[in-house]
């Protein structure tokens, strides 16, 4: 079995992290009017996690039963109904996550192109 090069694993892990972060941000936006909802975000991507798949839902098949890497945003001001979602902040966080995802995919794609060229399959 051929093992994936570390740079590809790193890029794939960063892309997956960014996609998951987009999901957390989307949930925040979807609950912008929900009384008592606390805005959440994810910890920064860390390549030290061994690139292991994590199960964030018991219905998922692969990976370890996962620790959720999300946390409540502490500095967020609450509305009178207790909701802490600031849509402007969520848009900025979404843009940041999108850019991180695009960077990771670009690194992944470029490294695949290099491997294909080295194998003469370009």
UniProtKB/TrEMBL annotation:
InterPro entries: Flag_bb_rod_N (IPR001444), Flagellar_basal_body_rod_CS (IPR019776). Residues 8-38 form the Flagellar basal body rod protein N-terminal domain. PROSITE patterns: FLAGELLA_BB_ROD (PS00588). Its main location: other. It is found in: Bacterial flagellum basal body. It holds the Pfam family Flg_bb_rod. GO terms for cellular component: bacterial-type flagellum basal body. It comes from the Bacteria. Belongs to the flagella basal body rod proteins family. This is Putative proximal rod protein. It comes from Jannaschia donghaensis. The lineage of its organism: Bacteria, Pseudomonadati, Pseudomonadota, Alphaproteobacteria, Rhodobacterales.
């Amino acid at each position: 079995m051929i093992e994936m090069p570390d740079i590809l694993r790193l890029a794939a892990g960063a892309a997956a992290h960014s996609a998951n972060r987009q999901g957390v941000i989307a949930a925040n936006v979807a609950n912008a009017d929900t009384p008592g909802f606390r805005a959440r975000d994810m910890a920064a991507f860390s390549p030290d996690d061994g690139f292991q798949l994590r199960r964030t839902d018991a219905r998922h098949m692969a990976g370890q039963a996962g620790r959720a890497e999300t946390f409540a945003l502490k500095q967020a001001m609450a509305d009178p109904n207790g909701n802490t979602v600031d849509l402007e902040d969520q848009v900025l966080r979404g843009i940041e996550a999108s850019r991180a995802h695009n960077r990771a995919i670009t690194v992944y794609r470029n490294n695949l192109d290099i491997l294909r060229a080295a194998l003469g399959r370009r």
